[in-house]
Amino acid sequence: MTFPQHAPFGALPVPPGVDVVGLPARVGVLTAFHAAPARRPRGTVLVVPGFTGSKEDFRDFLGLLAARGWNAWIYSQRGQGDSAAPAGRDAYHLDAFAADTVEVAGMVGGGRPVHLVGHSFGGVVARAAVIASPATFTSLTLLCSGPHGWPGRHADTTETVAASGSIGLWYRDNPGTRGVPDAELPPELAFLRLRAERTSSDNLLAGAEILRTQPDLTGELCATGVRTLVAHGERDDKWPIADQRAMADRLGARYAVIPGGAHLPQVEAPQATLEALDTFLGAG
């Protein structure tokens, strides 16, 4: 299937070999990056980004996957960046996020199961998608993503977004950028501020609630029989590492600690992250 080209989001350059496309999902257009390999693909890899994130978090990493022969995709979830953003928190239940993942996998996979990678909150969504439709996926990678939520998580995020919206969350954490023109900020920082401004507050409020209350579905995931990798940076500070390791044990999953990485290992340690993923994906 051929998808329409889409304008880049923000002023950051799109890496060579990466296309920006719009995926015509039921919720509306979900924007995506696609990096196709030069040779016949070894398979299709679909990445789901995390909380407060977007497809741009993996913009440089997709090309590394494509260079190893993978047909690599990532999309911005509903309410992220320049993807469709329905109004109201009811539009951001976990089953809606997961249904988007299943739908996108069907579009980019061309009728064949895809390898699914979920980063952080994207891992929560990816797990729910695999449980909902295991035949759609040939493998699952939970990257820096744990088995369940816990009380109080992101309570401060909820309070800030409820009071001042998604951009208020940005200025809480980056007060020095208030009133500074984009041209006077480093390009990456200007992009992140734009993304914060364009991110749906409903997405953030619902996502924070999911991260607080998500039950442990490790047993349900195990029952799908989908081959799984649990991987995280050696310095991941967003999900308890002990919980991630225990989840891998319960799943009988492959487990990888990424040297040099923290919670964004695809940025902090891209080559080590590539090796962990490529080894797992190629073993299936």
Largest sheet: number of strands, sense, barrel closure: 8 strands, mixed
Instruction: Name the CATH superfamily assignment of the domain at 18-148 and 216-282.
Output: Alpha/Beta hydrolase fold, catalytic domain
The value of Rg in angstroms is 18 Å
Oligomeric state of shown chains: single chain
Please name the CATH topology of the domain at 18-148 and 216-282.
Rossmann fold
Mean pLDDT: 97
Query: Helix coverage percent of residues?
Result: 25-40%
Number of strands: 8
Please indicate the percent range of residues in DSSP E strands (runs of 2 or more): 15-25%
Global shape: globular
Counting DSSP H or I runs of 4 or more residues, the number of helices is 10
Structural class comes to alpha/beta
CATH class of the domain at 18-148 and 216-282: Alpha Beta
H and E string: EEEHEHEHEHHHHEHEHH
Model regions low in confidence, pLDDT < 50 over at least 5 residues:
none
Strand order of the largest sheet: 1-2-4-3-5-6-7-8
CATH architecture tag of the domain at 18-148 and 216-282: 3-Layer(aba) Sandwich
Distance between the termini: 25 Å
